[in-house]
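quick q for whoever's on today - can somebody do inverse folding on this one?? i tried earlier but teh output was garbage lol. tokens:
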């Protein structure tokens, strides 16, 4: 019964928790974020977390992911080549009504597959709510969003430096809510 209610709530726009990037994060939050971004945390994320998160987020209606206190949401895209549904747990925060995603992939040389999927098929879902993905190109907007992103997940700054060493600029996506979400 609880599982049915959690799955039934996936389509409800109210299930996407608002994440204020300006809210102060305490020392325990920052310590957990550092642990998640440590070599052990990254290994666990790459080998276990990315497989478990979509199921865990779906079963809990987006309330619990492997990042625990790090704001994580279930992103549903369509494969860029296959058109098949794809699900990933991603860190997010809000910029007004827009949800913001950082396609960091922990700073490795290539972008995450969900970025290519969202760019090819911009209609995506976060916790069941329909959005339209837009890649942010304007440098002023990117700089402002990076400041917010670093407040939500401080290791993003290290990921940016690592990606830059390989010649990659980490993409930022903003998701605009779609009015006729059915």
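ok took a stab at it. sequence:
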């Amino acid at each position: 019964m609880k599982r049915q209610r959690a799955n039934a709530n996936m389509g409800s726009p109210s299930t996407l928790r608002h994440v204020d990037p300006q809210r102060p994060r305490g020392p325990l939050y920052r310590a957990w974020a550092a642990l998640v971004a440590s070599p052990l945390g990254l290994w666990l994320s790459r080998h276990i977390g990315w497989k478990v998160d979509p199921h865990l987020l779906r079963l809990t209606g987006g309330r619990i992911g492997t990042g625990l206190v790090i704001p994580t949401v279930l992103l549903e895209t369509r494969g860029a080549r296959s058109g098949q549904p794809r699900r990933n747990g991603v860190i997010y925060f809000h910029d007004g009504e827009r949800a913001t995603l950082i396609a960091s992939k922990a700073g490795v040389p290539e972008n995450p597959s969900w970025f290519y999927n969202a760019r090819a098929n911009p209609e995506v879902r976060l916790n069941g709510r329909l959005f339209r993905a837009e890649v942010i190109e304007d440098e002023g907007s990117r700089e402002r969003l990076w400041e917010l992103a670093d407040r939500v997940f401080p290791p993003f700054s290290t990921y940016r430096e690592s990606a830059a060493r390989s010649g990659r600029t980490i993409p930022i996506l903003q998701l605009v809510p779609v009015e006729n979400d059915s």
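fwiw Residues 103 and 117 are 12 Å apart (CA to CA). also The chain is about 40% helix and 20% strand. so keep that in mind when u check it
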